[in-house]
Amino acid sequence: MSISMLSPMGLLRVIPGPFQGAFLLSLILLLIKVAQFYLRRQWLLKALQQFPSPPSHWLFGHKYEFQKDQELQQILKWIVKYPCAFPRWMWGSKVFFQIYDPDYLKVILGRADPKSTELHNFLSPWIGEGLLLLNGPTWFQHRRMLTPAFHYDILQPYVQLTADSVQVMLEKWEELVTQGSHVELFEHVSLMTLDTIMKCAFSYHGNAQLNRSTHPYIKAVGDLSNLFFSRVRNAFHQTDMIYRLTPEGRLNHQACELAHKHTDQVIKQRKTYLQEERELEKIKRKKNLDFLDILLCAKMEDGSSLSDQDLRAEVDTFMFEGHDTTASGISWILYALAMHPKHQQTCREEIQSLLGDGSSITWDHLSQMPYTTMCIKEALRIYPPVPNISRVLSKPITFPDGRSLPKGITVLLNIHALHHNPKVWSNPEVFDPFRFAPGSTQHSHAFLPFSGGSRNCTGKQFAMNELKVAVALTLLRFELSPDPTGIPEPAAGIVLKGRNGIHLHLKKHH
Asked: Model-level pTM?
């Protein structure tokens, strides 16, 4: 009797008549979902059979292989055992195919596969359909439209604007040094890079660095980055309808609104300035248009201007990418130099011979600091600001070693693992700037801090300039040393950050 009661027909008898139809429908939908799960998993197992990976649970994937916040460290152990690539199972029918071999990366980046749809959907409420998330002809059109914003004629005046922002940050650090405390770099550097991108790309002169409290946009970006990374790894948060009902989903919505409020203010101020037709014409006659000028004056191929939605998406995208990634790069470079005082001193001597007291730094100076540039590149190798890039295979692929994957697999280009791959870099954990000495050679896809191929970072020259200015002016002003009580551990995310921050002791250089 008890067995029959637990059977579907037995349960149906005890359910009131009006609800029996709903019960049967729910049961059928559940069975369909189970069948879809099983068939998808079997397809994935067959598709990935040429690529071994650590044993995984059929439902929980590799979840138990990763201790909390130890993702980067765990993957670095696995790349020694699994050359080129391995599938990382998130849960039953969800897998990211991790790639960290330069030959594999070269093949992928030489194609035009789109970004992952799922990851795209998680990011689009925040940064919209801008250059980072667009695919196909629309992406190409926007890319071609925005490329002039990074011409060297436009980038040259930005050097002084960047230097002004860095000097504000260094003045704040001098006050902190007199108080005898160490400095947590990332928040200070984030405010400086936000200040810089606002002035350079949007001609918006705010005072983000001078406010005593955390800038709401910086906090929003931090929250959104953490929430995105957490959501990708939570099987129950994949559906928008469910996610919106959770505390994390509500916080995500609030943070999106804060970020949009900031970018809307930037756009509104410029549009107000351009309300008079003659002002718009004056802007168009300018020799050097900034990023926002180009967006506002741009015409699509059909003659139409960018919609308000497209305009905000590009501003949101560039505002995030233009400040958070460079903040990560600068913070980790300064930490690497603090950990290696001999290299730090060699950089300082090079910069002193070039700039003197640093009262003036110009575009021409940036190409005359070879040793400092070597150290910057080596720090970007060990601490790449963007640890991962995603693609979904739009057609089958065969790698140079003959192994292949079918269409539809989500591929994660693991830049962090590539830069630490002992088959690519000898002694990869050792800080050795001579890897990038003039005349040294490496695989074309061994070093990818700004990605590669047709979708490489449009702002990489802007970013490198900002890194050089920040490092040069900081070393002229301070001697850097690590805080022994707070050695940072790199933490995985959209952008590489330090768990519990990146703390340094600063000593005024005389």
From this structure: 0.92
Residues 6+ positions from 141 with CB-CB distance below 8 Å: 300, 301
Q: Alpha-carbon torsion 302, 304, 306, 307, what sign?
A: negative
* Amino acid type, 281: E
pLDDT at 1: 45
Beta strands at 503-508 and 410-414: parallel, antiparallel or unpaired: unpaired
In Å, what is the CA distance from 239 to each residue of 134, 253, 409? Answer: 21, 15, 20
> Residue 322 above 70 pLDDT?
yes
251 contacts 230 by C-beta, under 8 angstroms: no
Report CA torsion sign: 174, 179, 185, 188.
negative
For the chain, what percent of residues have pLDDT higher than 70?
A: 92
What is the rounded distance in angstroms from the CA atom of residue 401 to the CA atom of residue 422? 18
Buried b (16+ CB within 10 A) or exposed e, 89-116: bbbbbbbbbbbbbbbbbbbbbeeebbbb
> Which two tokens mark 239?
């559906």
Domains and CATH numbers, the chain: 1-32 (no CATH), 60-508 (1.10.630.10)
**pLDDT of 335 strictly over 80:** yes
